[in-house]
């Protein structure tokens, strides 16, 4: 019996060690294996896989695999972090510094490190200024609208501030006799409801001269302001500016409504346009910066990395991983990736990137300031779920705006405290 | 006498369950104890830092504004499904307990949903109840009725999900009842008929009492399964809007991965484990008392 | 007359139960751009969904994985639980009653409560993205149910069967495999159907424990059609039809044995 057990143990260890790879010695001829995890799905995931194939062709000694678990990405990564079982390269989807910093290798000495715009670089560096990831694209987030619908309803863009925006929503509703949904939100997926709160929070709390940036970071923020803020969005809901199936619609429904001219605004950034074109290739989309919250303030863009790759600091294949990032950072590869989603590149290369419908708008609004995405920059890691859930609860009338603020405050304090440990 | 001696003489025969015990200790008991340990910390679910909190997470759970709603929903999912599956399953079994060509077809049709992954089943029903373009609303519109938003109606939606869960698993209950009915000797019923009992009478006074062992099995296993219901809720509403259709499972998942409050999630998991244990043991004891031997 | 009414009732019940499958069928055969009612039958047999689902989810590979995992898991479940059930059914000492109760209670444990510690163990053992890792987990979580079924069934078998052989001095394992195991056929069919289906359809464990692309199983592959940023519901429908086909066939083949295994008073708590 004992011998049998030993035998089983031996087999188990054998199988266990088979996964370990021999890492490359010289950088000339790379040998070994690489695992890359990405949160990208669909076309973007396919492009990463394609590029990875090319990388393997250039480096015949490397066996490399791209894993794209889709919606489960974040959960899988959390479990992997807890077990210290990280892939060699992984995407940080905006959380490089806050969530993944302990697992990331500083990339300051990479060739492309200097091609990242200084203001943008700050977002993807740790508190000591170490560059953490390779940002393939950057999200320059504004308000995406269906051009034809706005023209039909006689709405003039850009909408400079929140009052203009509210008026536009009302106008769309009345001009179309309620046929067109002013703003389509796929709340069935939960996160899109949070999206509108998170994005409008930027003009409301961080862009004006008299902003709350510091108060949010040091914990002295007056949460009554949150009550006033969410009350405005509640009034949009009360006035019927959102789709009636806001709590059950899925992302695909938003894309469909946008594609078929049944919705004027969508709150997802540029990728919704690519999704909508799959249904109606002729859909005319436009883009403007986010309206200001206060009359004396200016419009703003949101800026942050969307797809960014970092290297696990304890990876056994750091050399190969660095070679892979260098490969991704090549101009033609960056271009290929960014153009598939109409997004700007995260690093400057000599190969120009065509961002499709968004090009003319980024040119038109070139002077508009960009700000980091609100919850990533000003809230502790872990607030997102509450923002989405309580927003839905407030719309349905289960809780009041005051309760929403109270929940935010409690969770904010809990997470601040937890992060200090 | 002799036989009993053989079974008691050497306990070596117990070796046969050692593999099972080993697997359980390693992959269920040990992680479970670990989980209870996590419930007493403020761990975020992935980092190395955490602090010991004692029973704070449990206190927080009972003070949570949404806790009573979540428990209520979980009970509806659990008890509601158990009742629905068993009543309908029993009716089906009685209807299908005979030999006819259509019987095979009907059994297969009723059992078919069991074969579909629950998450996918949830999606299929989402397409049925979807407010815009959903199959049910299409039907209502064809009949000249306005569309109904089935998935945002709070407790009604909880019942819709309970219905879907029952739809998926009523086949198993039916099969167990069918099997139970087939073990009832034919002469029992004949005797009842000769005594002048009507068909319903013979069912309620002769068959039903003999079916209690099947009822026990069905009710207890359905209860355990449905109290843990997760996939269908995720596919249909993801617990929303807000917290209105959350169950302990979905809430636990969201606390863990969404709110990064792994300690609290583990506390809820421990509570859930204990609650299911208590409920199923009570049900088991009550039903077992009613069992009669053939 | 009565017979006709009965047939009609059965037909209506069957149809009601088949409605979601009808919707699934119409969706599977429609183009994404076809926004007609889900009740409307597709105008032409549009097969691209099946092709796309098959290709994009690498379903050939996923099928192979599912078959390997399900077959081996089910075999091990049958082996371990029938073995465990034998002493538990035959030798009702206090210890064994306790063991039996403990095994059955494991049915109650919610998978998520133990997910992270379990993952950690598996990662330490090197079992992530390996067949043996997921099989170990699947087997463990199905054992309570199968042990329960086997113990009940063996309990109904007359003791004389094996006692005589034991008195003759044969080994217990030998007696079990030569005399008892062959009679367990019907309940084994039951175990195959109940546990096999669960393993085949498992999502919660597979998504965490099988991360490599080459290790994906069908439910994980299907779910990726309906995620955050993309929604290929028509592919999902087509994939779902393909995925459930082997199970339906298995059920139809084993149906008779399945019911037989459940009867004979074996299923008893």
Summarize the structure.
Chain B is mostly helical. Chain B contains 13 helices and no strands.
Kindly provide the radius of gyration of chain A, computed on alpha-carbon positions and rounded to a whole number of angstroms.
23 Å
Which CATH class of chain C applies here? Mainly Alpha
Per the principal axes of the C-alpha atoms, what is the gross shape of chain C? globular
The assigned CATH architecture of chain C is Orthogonal Bundle
Share in β-strands of chain A: 5-15%
- Greatest interface and its participating residue counts: B-C, 94 and 101 residues
Work out the count of structural domains of chain A.
2
H/E series of chain A: HEHEHEHEEEHHEHHHHEHEEEHHEHEHHH
Side-by-side strand order of the widest sheet of chain A: 2-1-3-11-4
Tell me the layout of helices and strands.
The complex is a heterotrimer of chains A (421), B (294) and C (269).
Chain A: H1 2-18, E1 32-37, H2 42-58, E2 62-67, H3 73-82, E3 89-91, H4 118-123, E4 134-135, E5 137-141, E6 143-146, H5 147-152, H6 162-175, E7 181-184, H7 191-205, H8 213-218, H9 224-238, H10 251-259, E8 263-266, H11 271-279, E9 285-288, E10 300-305, E11 308-311, H12 318-328, H13 331-339, E12 344-345, H14 358-364, E13 369-372, H15 374-378, H16 384-395, H17 401-420
Parallel strand pairs in A: 1-2, 1-3, 7-8, 10-13
Antiparallel strand pairs in A: 3-11, 4-11, 5-10, 5-12, 6-8, 6-9
Chain B: H1 2-9, H2 18-38, H3 56-63, H4 67-96, H5 101-111, H6 118-129, H7 135-142, H8 155-183, H9 186-194, H10 199-227, H11 231-236, H12 248-258, H13 262-289
Helix pairs in contact in B: 2-13, 3-13, 4-8, 4-10, 8-10, 9-10, 10-13, 12-13
Chain C: H1 2-28, H2 48-56, H3 59-90, H4 94-105, H5 115-125, H6 131-156, H7 160-167, H8 172-180, H9 185-201, H10 204-209, H11 218-223, H12 233-262
Helix pairs in contact in C: 1-12, 2-12, 3-6, 3-9, 4-6, 6-9, 7-8, 9-12
């Amino acid at each position: 019996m004992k011998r049998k057990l030993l035998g089983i143990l031996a087999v188990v260890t054998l199988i266990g060690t088979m996964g370990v790879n021999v890492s490359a010695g010289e950088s000339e001829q790379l040998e070994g294996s690489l695992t890359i995890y990405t949160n990208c799905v669909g076309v973007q995931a396919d492009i990463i896989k394609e590029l990875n194939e090319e990388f393997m062709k250039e480096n015949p000694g490397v066996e490399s695999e791209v894993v794209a678990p889709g919606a489960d990405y974040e959960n899988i990564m959390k479990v992997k972090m807890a077990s210290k079982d990280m892939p060699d390269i992984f995407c940080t989807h905006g959380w490089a510094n806050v969530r993944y910093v302990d697992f990331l290798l500083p990339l300051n000495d990479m060739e492309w490190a200097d091609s990242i715009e200084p203001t943008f670089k700050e977002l993807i560096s740790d508190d000591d200024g170490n560059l953490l990831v390779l940002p393939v694209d950057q999200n320059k987030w504004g308000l995406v609208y269906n051009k034809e619908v706005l023209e039909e309803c006689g709405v003039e863009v850009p909408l400079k501030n929140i009052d203009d925006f509210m008026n536009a929503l009302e106008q769309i509703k009345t001009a179309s006799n309620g046929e067109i949904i002013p703003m389509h939100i796929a709340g069935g997926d939960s996160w899109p409801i949070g999206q509108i709160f998170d994005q409008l929070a930027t003009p409301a709390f961080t862009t004006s001269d008299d902003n709350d940036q510091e108060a949010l970071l040091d914990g002295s923020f007056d949460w009554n302001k949150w009550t006033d803020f969410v009350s405005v969005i509640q009034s949009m809901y009360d006035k019927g500016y959102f789709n009636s199936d806001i709590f059950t619609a899925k992302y695909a429904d938003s894309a469909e409504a946008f594609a078929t001219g049944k919705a004027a605004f969508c709150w997802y950034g540029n990728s919704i346009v690519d999704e909508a074109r799959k249904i109606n290739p002729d859909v005319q989309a436009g883009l403007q910066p986010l309206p200001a919250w206060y009359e004396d303030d200016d419009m703003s863009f949101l800026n942050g990395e969307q797809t960014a790759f970092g290297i696990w600091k304890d990876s056994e294949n750091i050399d190969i991983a660095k070679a892979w990032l260098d490969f991704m950072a090549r101009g033609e590869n960056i271009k290929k990736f960014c153009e598939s989603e109409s997004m700007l590149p995260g690093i400057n290369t000599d190969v120009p990137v065509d961002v499709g419908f968004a090009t003319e708008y980024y040119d038109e609004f070139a002077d508009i300031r960009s700000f980091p995405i609100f919850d990533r920059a000003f809230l502790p890691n872990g607030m997102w779920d509450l923002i989405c859930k309580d927003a839905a609860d407030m719309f349905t009338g289960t809780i009041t705006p005051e309760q929403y603020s109270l929940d935010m405050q409690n969770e904010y304090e809990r997470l601040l405290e937890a992060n200090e440990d | 006498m002799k036989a009993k001696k053989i079974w008691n003489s050497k306990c070596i025969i117990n070796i046969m369950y050692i593999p099972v015990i080993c697997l359980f200790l390693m992959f269920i008991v040990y992680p479970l104890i670990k989980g209870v340990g996590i419930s007493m910390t403020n761990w975020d679910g992935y980092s190395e830092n955490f602090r010991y909190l004692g029973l704070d997470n449990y206190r927080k759970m009972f003070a949570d504004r949404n806790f009573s709603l979540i428990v209520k929903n979980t009970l509806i999912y659990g008890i509601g499904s158990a009742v629905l599956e068993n009543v309908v399953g029993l009716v089906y079994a009685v209807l299908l307990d005979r030999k006819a060509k259509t019987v095979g077809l009907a059994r297969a049709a009723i059992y078919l949903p069991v074969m579909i992954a629950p998450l996918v089943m949830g999606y299929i029903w989402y397409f049925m109840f979807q407010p815009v373009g959903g199959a049910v609303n299409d039907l209502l519109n064809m009949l000249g009725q306005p569309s109904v938003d089935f998935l945002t109606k709070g407790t009604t939606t909880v019942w819709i999900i309970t219905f879907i869960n029952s739809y998926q698993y009523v086949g198993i209950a039916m099969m167990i009842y069918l099997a139970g009915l087939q073990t009832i000797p034919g002469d029992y019923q004949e005797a009842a008929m000769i005594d002048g009992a009507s068909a319903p009478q013979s069912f309620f006074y002769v068959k039903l009492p003999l079916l209690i062992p099947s009822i026990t099995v069905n009710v207890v296993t359905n209860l355990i399964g449905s109290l843990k219901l997760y996939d269908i809720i995720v596919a249909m509403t993801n617990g929303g809007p807000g917290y209105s259709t959350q169950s302990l499972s979905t809430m636990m998942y969201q606390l863990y991965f969404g709110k990064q409050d792994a300690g609290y999630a583990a506390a809820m998991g421990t509570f859930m484990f204990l609650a299911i244990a208590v409920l199923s043991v009570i049900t088991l004891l009550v039903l077992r008392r009613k069992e009669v031997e053939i | 007359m009565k017979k006709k009414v009965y047939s009609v009732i059965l037909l209506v019940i069957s149809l009601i139960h088949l409605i979601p499958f009808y919707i699934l069928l119409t969706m599977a055969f429609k183009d994404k751009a076809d926004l007609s009612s889900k009740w409307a039958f597709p105008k032409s047999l549009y097969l691209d969904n099946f092709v796309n689902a098959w290709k994009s989810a690498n379903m050939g590979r996923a099928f192979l994985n599912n078959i390997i995992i399900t077959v081996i898991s089910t075999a091990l479940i049958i082996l371990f639980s029938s073995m465990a059930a034998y002493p538990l059914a035959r030798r009702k000492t206090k210890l064994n009653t306790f063991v039996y109760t403990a095994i059955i209670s494991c049915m109650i444990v919610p998978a998520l409560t133990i997910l992270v510690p379990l993952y950690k163990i598996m990662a330490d053992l090197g079992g992530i993205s390996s067949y043996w890792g997921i099989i170990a987990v699947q087997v463990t979580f199905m054992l309570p149910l199968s042990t329960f079924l086997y113990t009940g069934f063996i309990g109904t078998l007359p003791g004389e069967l094996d006692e005589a052989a034991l008195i003759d001095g044969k080994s217990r394992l030998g007696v079990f495999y030569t005399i008892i195991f062959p009679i367990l056929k019907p309940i084994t069919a039951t175990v195959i159907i109940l546990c096999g289906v669960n393993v085949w359809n498992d999502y919660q464990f597979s998504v965490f424990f099988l991360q490599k692309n080459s290790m994906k199983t069908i439910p994980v592959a299907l779910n990726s059609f309906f995620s955050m940023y993309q929604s290929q519901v028509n592919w999902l429908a087509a994939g779902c039809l393909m995925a459930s086909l082997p199970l339906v066939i298995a059920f139809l083949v084993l149906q008779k044995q399945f019911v037989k295994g459940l009867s004979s008073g074996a299923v008893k708590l």
